[in-house]
Design a protein that fits this description.
Oligomer: single chain
Number of helices: 6
Helix content: 10-25%
Number of strands: 13
Strand content: 25-35%
Order of helices and strands: EEEHEEHEHEHEHEEEEEH
Strand order of the largest sheet: 4-1-5-6-13-12-11-8-9
Length: 229
């Protein structure tokens, strides 16, 4: 059998490379490396056209990190620290994820990908986590990962991948789950109580984490996704 085809969503941002300064559909290459390392075939999915129609051609889906979701999607107004909103990306990814859930496509949400899942299913977000937990450890500075411990819930898919003992993982998020969607279960939390992983109560693999496993040394969550395909 060939490698399972894993679609990964992308950013669209201004970027400079070699002699070019232009708008680019891009993704940190660590996502690609981790999927390949786990045995999958990565395919990048820009937020253009009708990506939801690709669900039938994929074996698994990753919604990657990125800017903030438009708070109007969960009935709120943007606050001071909410930024990098890309309405076209919201439209593409909410449609893509809805189609993936309907089709029971194995799913791994990463950072923004957890938030898209929670909001899609009716949940809400804290728009600036430091206002809630009183520290900036989840995103200590621009382009700098925080390294905080999380503990997975015994019996969860996250625990099967990472174990139930506290483990330090790379964080880079200033938002997090506020009201949890009814169909989701919390399956990992940080020491400060922040929800760091959720799972859909369903027979197929549907896991989302708030941290950045693509920046970790292991690929356990990516292996779990690929194995479920």
């Amino acid at each position: 059998m060939g490698r399972p085809v894993i679609g990964i969503t992308t950013y669209v941002e201004p970027a400079r490379f070699t002699v070019w300064d232009t708008t680019v559909a891009l993704l940190p290459y660590t996502y690609v490396e981790q999927v390949e390392r786990a045995g999958g075939q990565p395919v990048l999915l820009p937020p253009a056209g009708r990506p939801a129609e690709l669900v039938g051609r994929l074996d698994g889906l990753i919604v990657a990190g990125g800017g903030d979701i438009d708070p109007q999607r969960y009935g709120a107004e943007p606050q001071e620290h909410t930024g990098y909103i890309r309405p076209f990306r919201d439209t593409a990814e909410f449609g893509l994820l809805s189609a993936a859930l309907d089709g029971e496509l194995p799913y791994l949400g990463i950072c923004r990908g957890l938030q898209v899942l929670n909001v899609t299913l009716g949940g809400t977000l804290h728009q600036h986590l430091p206002d809630v937990v009183g520290h900036t450890g989840h995103a200590p500075g621009p382009g700098t990962f925080g390294h905080l411990g999380i503990r997975a819930t015994p019996g969860s898919r996250v625990a099967k991948a990472l174990g139930t003992e506290p483990v330090e993982v790379p964080h880079y998020h200033h938002q997090a789950v506020d009201r949890l969607a009814l169909d989701l279960a919390v399956t990992a939390v940080a020491e400060d109580g922040t929800i760091e992983a959720v799972e859909l109560d369903a027979p197929h693999f549907a896991v989302a984490v708030q941290w950045h496993p693509e920046a970790a040394t292991d690929c356990a969550l990516f292996e779990a996704l690929v194995a479920s395909c």
